[in-house]
Write a structure and sequence with these properties.
This protein is an alpha+beta fold. 47% of the residues lie in helices and 17% in strands. It has one domain (16-161): PX Domain, CATH 3.30.1520.
Length: 163
């Protein structure tokens, strides 16, 4: 660790801000309605391909991400997600807001962990609009693009800002 910590001193501090915002109910009123959240990322970290990104993800995708991170992190503890709680007492808005805060805390802890940060699934989750199966294919080299290409393609398309 000796030489590595000296290197850190003479370069600017790496900062990554991740925000989970703007919960939106999709398919409202139908049996398959769900809430998705806007994930805004702003960073100067060399770990990230794009310095800013904005994607929408739903809770089920966070659950998938956590499972994948756990598989690959070895002994590194992966932060907890907010609970599913089918029997939530209080308003739906209150539940959605609690979950939003929990998802944000989850991502804040994840992006501060060097081991978890090295997982390309995390980067595709945060910086591309690929679905879970597309992320898997991309990570395994079976997609039309590499991980970096997928992120850059999304960043250039600006769809992260349209939403």
């Amino acid at each position: 660790l000796g030489s590595g910590s000296r290197m850190l001193e003479n370069r600017e501090e790496e900062l990554t801000t991740v925000r989970v915002q703007d919960p939106r109910v999709q398919n409202e009123g139908s049996w398959n309605s769900y809430v998705d959240y806007k994930i805004f990322l702003h960073t100067n970290s060399k770990a990230f391909t794009a310095k800013t990104s904005c994607v929408r993800r739903r809770y089920r995708e966070f659950v998938w991400l956590r499972r994948q991170l756990q598989k690959n992190a070895g002994l590194v503890p992966v932060p907890e997600l907010p609970g599913k709680s089918a029997f939530f007492v209080g308003s739906t808005d209150e539940f959605i807001e609690k979950r939003r805060q929990g998802l944000q805390q989850f991502l804040e802890k994840v992006v501060q962990n060097v081991v978890l940060l090295s997982d390309s699934r995390l980067h595709l989750f945060l910086q591309s609009q690929l679905s879970v199966p597309e992320i898997e294919a991309c990570v395994q080299g079976q997609g039309p693009q590499t991980v970096t290409e997928a992120i850059l393609h999304y960043a250039m398309s600006n769809c992260g800002w349209v939403q």
